[in-house]
Amino acid sequence: MAIIELLEFQDQTREVMAKRLPEDLKADIKLGAQLIVREAQTAIFYRGGQALDSFGPGRHTLTSANLPILSKLINLPFGGQTPFKADVVFVDTGLIDDQKWGTKEPISFRDTVLKVVRLRSFGTMTYKIVDPLLFSNKRLKSSKIFSAKDLANWVRDAVVQRMTDVLGEVMKSIFDLPAMYDEVTAACKARLAQDFAKNGLELEDLRINAISPPKEVQKKIDERSGLGLFEESMPAFQQYQMGYAMRDAAKNEGGIAGSGMGMGMGLGMGFMMPGMMAQGMAPGMQGGTPPQGGTPPQGGMPPQGGGYPQQQMQQQAGMGAAAGMGAHQGYQHQHTQQQQATGQKCPKCNYPVGPGIKFCPNCGNKFENKQEKVPCVKCQTPLIKGSKFCPNCGSNQEQTAKPVCVKCQKELSPGAKFCPYCGSPQPA
Fold it and tell me: pLDDT per residue over 8-34, tens digit each?
């Protein structure tokens, strides 16, 4: 049987959290053997499944002086003679960093703007072992090795559970989340402290990389933000859409004339459909073909046999096209009159615009919105109304007392949504 005279463990992967030596658990250790414990390591001696002595960083010679508890147990069965049977667990107490976490599936939340939204969240964390004996007994147990990968599922599920709980309490709209990352992180870290402490761990750092909806929801949000540019002026949006339609029509072989004819034919078919449906529902109608000649009888009723003759269909299609083009020209004339009545023009291209328009429909120039100015409370520099700080002297424009936590009564920074000391949410 092998006799061990040197005990040490080096981890080049930086993933091993605990390692038991000797690996085969059959070798003997003799008094006088050398034990090397590196920085950010702790060595724990076990005998008979019971933890006895522990050693910190350094080079140790195993004698009865530095193994008092183990020496007493050795003297009983072996009469003070060596070698003796024991195993050593090396526990890494350094930082385990860049550990990823994230939701497996999107989670549904209430949203004041979108009503209901599904969100994903992911990020990284850093933690370390602060109680080696507790960690070894609860996680390593009788195994030979325990790595950060073995702990990854538990850590990820714990973070996602607390993150979901916090977001469910404070989230009003997804559009407010980017300004709340620090508060959400502090609240999650405070609530996770007890979960980690039960396993001899301490959460050093927690980072949120993103809280975002799935791609299909992001696409809908992009569409909604595009409509928001014209929310206060639908005529401008209609002009915007009409410009794109005319550009696309110009690329067709028939050009604008062909596009206009197509629009007229479409309107003509729209006018024809009610008459055709009414004739189809009239009593006494029977299937068949129209009589030769294609001329409708007097009185406007189609001949027996169902359906209009070809000449009458073409005539009504032409009437529909004329009506459609007339309606379009009437709308343009009315809209031009409304624009001229306001007397407003684009300062860049002199194109007449209506009230409330933010962008020129002709050149796309953005109209400046003159905002109300107020003086700084300290240096009297003109500021935009609602500014929180003065860019000239840096003084706070909101002269209010600092808030305190509703639970632990500790002082908080203005606008904090969570207490960084106890993690409790604060009223808005």
Answer: 999 888 899 999 998 777 778 887 889
To 10 degrees, the CA torsion angle through 324, 328, 331, 337? -140
Query: Letter for the amino acid at 324?
Result: G
Contacts of 276 (CB under 8 A, 6+ apart): 307, 308
pLDDT of res. 352: 80
Distances (CA, A) of 364 to 203, 231, 348, 353: 52, 16, 10, 12
CA separation for the pair 43, 58 (Å, rounded) = 10
At 257 the pLDDT is 46
pLDDT value for 8:
93
CA 129 to chain centre: 31
3 state SS for 401-416: CCCECCCCCCECCCCC
Q: What are phi and psi of 320, to 5 degrees?
A: -65, -40
Q: Is the Cβ–Cβ distance between 207 and 189 less than 8 Å?
A: no
CA gap 65, 320 in Å, rounded: 108
pLDDT digits 0-9 by tens, 287-315: 444 444 444 444 444 444 444 445 554 55
Per-residue tokens: 250: 């110009």
* Opening angle at CA 97, ends 95 and 102, nearest 5: 140
Say which residue the tokens 């050693």 belong to.
55
Q: Which two tokens stand for residue 412?
A: 């908080």
The fold of 95-219 is Tetrahydropterin Synthase; Chain A (3.30.479)
> What pLDDT does 313 receive?
47
R_g of the chain, CA atoms, integer Å: 40
Match 């996602």 to its residue by tokens. Answer: 160
Does residue 132 have a cis bond before it (omega within 30 degrees)? Answer: no
Give tens-digit pLDDT for 333-353: 554 555 454 557 787 788 887
- Euclidean distance between CA atoms 8 and 88, whole angstroms: 9
